[in-house]
Amino acid sequence: MIIGSGAGGAPLAQTLVQAGHEVLMLEKGPLLRTQSQSPDGLSDFKRDELFATGAEKRLKVPGMANIGESFFSSHVEPDLNDEPHVYRDTDGRDRATIEGYTAQVVGGGTQLYGGVSLRFTPDDLRLATFNAGRTDLRDDPRGEVEREARDWPVSYDELEPFYSEAERIVGLNGTRSNQEKPASAEHYQPPLEPNPISKVVAAGMDALGMRRYRTPLAVITRDHAPSGRTVPADHETIKTAFVNRYGDALGLKSNTWVSILAPMASSLNFELRANCNVTHLESDGERVTKVHYRDPMGGRRVVEAGTVVVACSAIESVRLLLLSGAADLGGFGERIHSSGLLGRYFLTHCFGGASAIVPERADKSRTLDSDWATDHCARAEWVREQGLWAGGAIYNNTSDAALPISLARTWQAQDMDNIWKGYLGDTSIVGPGFEDYLDQNFGRRVSVSFMANQVAQPDNRIELHPTVRDKWGRAVAYVIKDWHSHDQALMDVLADQCGEILRRGGEGVQFSGQGSVGGQVSRIANHVLGGARFGTDPKDSVLDPDCRAWEFQNLYVADGAFMPTSGGANPTLTIQANSLRVGRALLGRL
Ligand SMILES: Cc1cc2nc3c(=O)[nH]c(=O)nc-3n(C[C@H](O)[C@H](O)[C@H](O)COP(=O)(O)OP(=O)(O)OC[C@H]3O[C@@H](n4cnc5c(N)ncnc54)[C@H](O)[C@@H]3O)c2cc1C
After folding, report:
1. 439 assigned to some structural domain
2. Is 50 exceeded by the pLDDT of residue 81?
3. CA of 104 to the centre of ligand 1 (A)
4. Which residue has the higher pLDDT, 518 or 190?
5. N or C: which end of the chain has fewer CB within 10 A?
């Protein structure tokens, strides 16, 4: 049984189904069909899904510092009043948020993701070795960076065949040359023409001697045999099908529903139950025996467990395990807490970048989001020269403000907490100010982002909130997280690199600023990782190298929770590759 149908759940399901095993997949969210899958030809996805479900609401969760604030419910996230995440803010007060929910829908976060599908570097998987004995690390007065760094129990070479297989089955476009990540097979489809606005990024990277490549994106540009999908004859049309943060009505963005699950949906040994919310697991000693869930009508159901794979995205997977432990303290609880580490070492990414206004307007409704990437700042020599513990990927975004109608409400917003704020506090965005705002943000703004490893810290953690309950009476996830001083140093260096790219972008480019998420605890972000890290020592990890919970014979975690370090790139391709690897390990045991 697999719980969750996103990046962690689906590839593993495919491995087992293709090998002839019976797989039941329980998914909390609904199944949203593409145009071609729907009998009336209309996609279940709407372009305004972040705001889709009705009028403005007020937060009513007792005890929250943001009680009474307004929000718009989305049809791919829980209603905040029903099931929020709670984070402890810099002022020590608790706030409710939908941050950290990737998307509660068949396909999970891959339905809304930007599709940036980069591999991690070999060094990302061996940061303890890379940093051993170093005395040159910036802003690390207590030596925590080296102390907390962990090598993954699998090497890049061991993971590599699964990266290649993930790239084949998911369906990506991009280019390989100039990447710092070795590959044994080539499955990229050719990229489309870059958006004209990206030429300043190409010019800046070239001026700085940064070897660039076309960003691998999970969007098919040619017919894709593994999933049976076909593309429109006019390839430029593909650009209108896909936008970061939105579901793709055409099914060309390679979310796990269209690329992996739909093609096997009619297999007799596979059953997908959507709108089924798993509430807790039950064990009998070292075996999980039952999985409890709510069916689409809210009724309580129980299924007997064979092998159980949890893949609810890191925060919700940890929450599910914590809730299962709380329901059976002496049994499940004692086993799952044997290392004392469940929930600890929660990670996101060091993230930030720079933006500029370019002289010529571009049509950003026709975009595949990210055109150019560079691994320049992931190279070991560069990382050492800068006194950093790890590097990161840099790539540009074109679609960050591509859809004026919805995003007009999100003045300067790239994350969901800000979306609540809309125009609050900026009364200049009316009349001509509004026209200028649209002109600058939606036609002429270009940004360059970095994505890099966050320092692992035991106190960054997921707990069960002591008082806030979801609408079924279960404790909600409580996210306690801060940045390390080395994180801030790393973000400053990388933001500066992004700024340099734009400053060298050519004549007429107006640099408008750079920054990072450092200092913003509220930005829990879309990349939720760690909390149940894998390793070789049961005292130092929650999962064994095959992502099996140490104290259970038949319990696996296959989403981003397994990561002991968060990698210098967007995580989903690595989650998918690892899911295939865990699936292969499971085949040997079933
Ligand atoms: C707007 C946005 C943009 C992003 N862009 C990128 C990008 O460009 N590149 C990249 O690499 N990553 C990106 N991400 C992140 C990416 O979506 C996640 O890394 C990835 O989906 C995580 O995989 P997962 O398996 O951990 O969780 P998910 O893919 O989210 O899957 C978890 C699934 O479990 C289900 N579930 C949760 N709880 C339960 C329960 N109790 N019972 C049953 N089912 C449950 C959920 O409904 C969900 O479908 C983005 C995310 C967002 C939101």
Report:
1. no
2. yes
3. 8
4. 190
5. C
Which region, left, alpha or beta, applies to residue 547 given φ > 0 means left and ψ of -120 to 50 means alpha?
A: left
Domain count along the chain: 1
Residue 436 in domain: no
What percent of the residues of the chain are helix, what percent strand, and what percent coil, each to the nearest 5? 30, 20, 50
Sheet bearing 23-26, strands edge to edge = 270-273, 23-26, 2-3, 308-310, 555-557
Ligand 1 mutation pick, 526, 529, 575, 580, max ligand atoms within 8 A of CB: 526
3-state secondary structure at position 379: coil
The answer to whether 208 and 256 are in contact (CB under 8 A) is: no
Atom of ligand 1 nearest to the CA of 561: 26
The pair of three-digit structure tokens given for residue 86, joined into one six-digit string: 């709670």
Residue nearest to atom 50 of ligand 1 (CA): 113
pTM of the model: 0.96
Q: Is the pLDDT confidence value at 579 over 90? A: yes
- Which domain covers residue 142, as residue numbers? 2-37+51-399+444-587
Give the type of residue at 212. Answer: R
- Taking the centre of ligand 1 as the mean of its atom positions, its distance from the CA of residue 226, in whole angstroms, is 22
In this predicted structure, the answer to whether residue 522 has a pLDDT above a threshold of 50 is yes
Q: Please state, in angstroms and rounded to a whole number, the distance separating the CA atoms of residues 357 and 200.
A: 10
Tell me the CA–centroid distance for residue 572 and ligand 1, in Å.
8
3-state DSSP assignment of residue 288: strand
Strand 475-480 with 445-453, pairing: unpaired
Confirm whether 425 is domain-assigned: no
Residues within a 6 A CB radius of ligand 1: 3-9, 26-29, 102-105, 108-110, 112-116, 244-245, 277-278, 311-314, 316, 320, 526-527, 559-560, 570-572, 575
Q: pLDDT digits over 133-187, tens only?
A: 999 999 999 999 999 999 999 999 999 999 999 999 999 999 999 999 999 999 9
- CATH code for the domain of 536: 3.50.50.60
